[in-house]
Amino acid sequence: MPFNTLSFALFFLLVFILYWFVFYKSLKLQNLFLLLASLFFYSCWDFRFTILLAFSIGLNFYIGKKIYENISNSPLQKRWFLLSIIFNLGFLSLFKYYNFFVDNFLELLSVLGIKMNIWTLQIVLPVGISFYTFHGLSYVIDIYKKKIEPVNTIIDYSLFVSFFPLLVAGPIERATHLLPQIQKNRSFNYYNIVCGLRQILWGLVKKVVIADGCAEYVNLIFDNPSDYSGSTLVIGAILFSFQIYGDFSGYTDIAIGTARLLGIELLQNFSYPYFSRDLAEFWRRWHISLSSWFRDYVYIPLGGSRGSKLQELRNVFIVFMLIGFWHGANWTFIVYGFINFIYILPLILFSQNRKNIEIVSTNGLVNNCKVFLDIVMTFGLVSFARIFFRSNTVGDAFYYISKIFSNTLFTFPEVFPKTIIGFLFLFMCIEWKGRKNYFAIEKFGLTWSKPFRMCFYYLLVLLVLYYFGKDLQFIYFQF
Fold first, then answer.
1. How many alpha carbons fall within 13 Å on the CB side of residue 313?
2. What is the rounded distance in angstroms from the CA atom of residue 29 to the CA atom of residue 36?
3. Which amino acids are annotated catalytic?
């Protein structure tokens, strides 16, 4: 039941009405209702996935209790903690990475002249398993680190893990942020409703108009790179960057807006990443909940920036390899992670990785030519790395790149979608205008006259309705 379907709209309308007008008098009933709605939402993909989700929830809830009960018995507490790590990462590896490791092991043996048969598993990757596994891990780790205490009721914890807006593609929430909201009374707030609807609308524009509009040409170009000139392949790489941004940040906007309609605030996951001036800033603004998760639970425990520069580089390297591999069991994602490490390497070596913290050009327009060139260069590097992200194999990616750097690079592209490029220009203008806000149209047009402002929003609604109906899956559902 993806967000960009009529079935989800009807499902959420029913949830919204029952949540606010039937179960509003009891927090326990509200939470139980949201939990049942979330499990139903997840079971619409495959009921068997719900069984695995329920097992993950029960395991981490129980182990969290055991870790806290043995707070004075450090060896036993540590054993319970390691058990949780083993089970969580074990299930994730089994469903997501087992066949990858087996296939590569067999290929290595074949190179050495050894033939061996090892069974691979014919299983479907449970949608959202990476996201809810990380939810559970953060909960257990925070209890072990004495940052939080375990929740008393299984319903509250289950809702924290399975809350349907974030269940299948994030943001990756923290127990310290979401659980307190689940455990306190929530009231109907008109501002939150209006703001949530605005964010949902902007998310639908990103997904239906921008991402799905780009997808048609991206698929055409990436599936047949030998048929096109180098200039066309550059267009394909650029359009894919906009596709994945519109797709994933669009999902996030819909998720956050939907949660806000239910009185719950989720973590921000994107902060205008394509206005970044270097790769370090880009990763602070792109998929924030994932990069901050690895920062807090991997990078800092490894030592972070403490110690020598070599140790810091080691820690950054590990994080980017894990970020790449988190995206999927394919060498393309590992190479994608490695390229991003190479990009950020000079910034770490010369201690320039935190020079761009504040939002770009706070006074309105681009401050100077250098800032503009930095933004363009960063976007270009990101788009280049994304060729590996989009390709089926590393070989396909290198072939695509080799075709770009051919004598056809400076010819006029065979594919030049004027309509979608026009939409992209207007889209980025609106994003630039709203870059100081939580999302681009949060306060867009508030100083305009009401008729003019309403025309703007009606235009966005008409655009969504006009392009609605492709029902293309969100890219991050596969992760």
1. 14
2. 10
3. 327
